[in-house]
Amino acid sequence: MAMTAGLQSYVTKCQCGRQLVRYVLRKCYSIEHQTEKPLHIPVMASQVINILQPIDGQRYVDMTFGAGGHTKEILSVAPEAEMIVLDRDPVAHELACNLASQYRKGQVIPLLGRFSDIPLLFSSKNIEPGSVDGIVFDLGASSMQFDQSERGFSLVRDGPLDMRMDGQRLPDQPTAADVVNMLDQEDLYEIIKKYGEEKMAQHISHAIVETRYAFGNITRTKQLADIIAGVFSSNHRKDMMMRHAHVATKTFQALRIFVNNELNELHNGLEMAFRYLRVGGKCAVLSFHSLEDRIVKRHFHGIDIDAHLNMSMRDHYRNSARVFAREEVEKLLEKRWKPMSKKVTSTTFEDRMENPRARSAKLRSAVKIL
Q: Would you say 215 and 330 are in contact if contact means Cβ atoms under 8 Å apart?
């Protein structure tokens, strides 16, 4: 007999409660052996290692070094592997240089730049196409960027409305403050709706424009968060872990993606991954946003990045009377990647408890076959 909605809800709560109890007991049991809390917890590190299977002497690329969590995991498994570590953030690049100094010369190669800069950066280090054995992406803003109030990423810490991942090394790059204060309501609506997938985008964009006309430029993160909160009946929503999440989270995410051109850069990064991986090389991508995951999925499954969302090969080519040219058939059959699993991998309950940043993480992986 089917369960009622109330009974189903009760069962779900009980299951979550049991998971929480098991987690707390494990933590209590192991706490006496824990000497120090790690500063940075890489998301789904064991799964990434399982995909890449690092081997001494092989070459790997960490496309998003950040605090170096995934790079360190790879080197702990294969201490003689060669690592190329890239990041657009000067602070992360400095950390990468410090890590490189702990290894033999040339084993860890730190590079500063965006995915679109890779051809020039790799060429400067004589890294040839088809010479890499494994690549990892950990997309989105890093924990370090959120923790530094002066970077303007955080809702919790008040700071200048900046959000540039490149810091101040590219002075002509617009900041989030430039976007909020210079664009008209229609453009702001498009950004918040498209990149934040925010249902209240129309109201938020209207409130931003009205506020800046009445009180002048919006320059601080708390100032913008308060404006957005004024649109909602409550300051918080519930996230997937049933915790309070600020109502401005999606708008901040949208501005960050727009300011840093993240989706176009991701497309460039995946193209570069294919170019520099050897045949049989593996690529693992951690995404934290549905738009990011969609781009990764389309690359790995060979779907045209500009194709309509509901387009399928069955529906598009079901007309039996149609005759295909040979080149068209060959293009349909040609695949560049072979996904390593049919479904996307999500974090476990324990992963999310250990590292709240991992709550929305999705992992896709593929092997280069062409």
A: no
Q: Which residue has the tokens 């789904």?
A: 44
In degrees, to the nearest 5, what angle opens at C-alpha 345 toward C-alphas 309 and 362? 65
**Residue the block writes with tokens 């690092």:** 54
Distance between CA atoms of residues 269 and 199, nearest Å: 30
pLDDT at site 124: 97
Distance CA 350, CA 358 (A): 10
Q: 126: left (phi > 0), else alpha (psi -120 to 50), else beta?
A: left
E strand spans, the chain: 59-62, 82-87, 108-112, 132-138, 236-238, 244-246, 277-287, 337-339, 345-346, 362-368
* Cβ neighbours, 10 Å, residue 335: 13
Domain(s) labelled CATH 1.10.150.170 in the chain stretch across 167-259
User: Where does CATH 3.40.50.150 sit in the chain?
Assistant: 45-143+262-368
* 339, amino acid identity: P
3-state secondary structure of 277: strand
| CA–CA separation, 39 and 238 (whole Å) | 26
Helix, strand, coil fractions of the chain, as percent rounded to 5: 50, 15, 35
Total-model pTM: 0.81
Question: Which residue has 């092997």 as its token pair?
Answer: 367
| Topology (CATH) of 45-143+262-368 | Rossmann fold (3.40.50)
Query: What is the per-residue pLDDT across 266-308, written as a single tens digit (0 to 9) for each?
Result: 999 999 999 999 999 999 999 999 999 999 999 999 887 666 5
The Cα-based distances of 103 to 41, 118, 150, 289 in angstroms read 22, 23, 32, 34
- Cβ-count burial 87-101 (b if 16+ within 10 Å, e if not): bbbebbbebbeebbe
Distance, CA of 162 to CA of 168 (rounded, Å): 10
In CATH, what class is 167-259?
mainly alpha
